[in-house]
Sequence to fold (134 residues):
Amino acid sequence: MARLPRLREIPTLLRASALVCAVRLALWVVPFARLRRVVAFLARPRLRGQSHYSANQLSWAVRAISRYVPRATCLTQALVLHILLRQEGLPSRIRIGVSKDAGHFEAHAWVESQDRVVIGDSGLQRFTPMTVWE
Fold:
């Protein structure tokens, strides 16, 4: 059962909502090279000093909102979390890997921050990392 957000989490959920919807739409209509530039622009640190939110809090917000956005896949979630982490001044690295099990090709994106996977860790051992986006 999903828990109700605390009052202090609502601004983060609103930011995550806007970004998940925007990134999902952009993945449909914008060439990926252009989208990478836009994400890099949005991912500039906004804060000086200590961040207000942890990687876990931001990851929770992205996962919670993504449940309600059609086709908010691992790539959508990874791009949004990368933006939020970087805006908070936290380290972020997107990894994209591939797997070919029994002739079935599959790709997956996940985000690492402070040497741990913060989103997209389900079934990760099946994927061979192919690219890193910092």
Remarks:
- The chain is about 45% helix and 20% strand.
- The chain has a mean pLDDT of 91.
- The CA atoms of residues 99 and 127 lie 5 Å apart.
- The two ends are 34 Å apart (CA to CA).
